[in-house]
Design brief:
The protein has 130 residues and is α/β, with parallel strands linked by helices. It is built from five helices and five strands, in the order αβαβαβαβαβ. 29% of the residues are buried.
Amino acid sequence: MKPLKTSAADMVASARRDIEEVETSDAISLVGSDDVVFVDLRDVRERQRFGFIPGSFHCPRGMVEFWVDPDSPYHKPIFAEDKRFIFHCASGWRSALTVQTLNQMGFDAAHLKDGFSTWEKAGGPVEKVE
């Protein structure tokens, strides 16, 4: 195998220098705010297995650019709302790369720095799938 020019970890580190990161404790205080949308990028099986932030919007990572773009046939109206969007995954790697891409598109977003992995331990509310 030919060596990679850039590792995934290097890409995430670069993205983190360019985006807004929200600490878990700060994000927990925003749950239930009418002007904040938590966007869960995790796979549906992760949500089922570990639960999710109450009221969060599930957006598979593979569709996010298309759901955010108002000119896309796949656009989701939630992304046209005048709200603060905080994206998250499990550990903050996928969401860092996603938010960097969205910001390059002109969409204003932030991400949960440590992802969902620290959420419950920090006292964040979790909704479980029945």
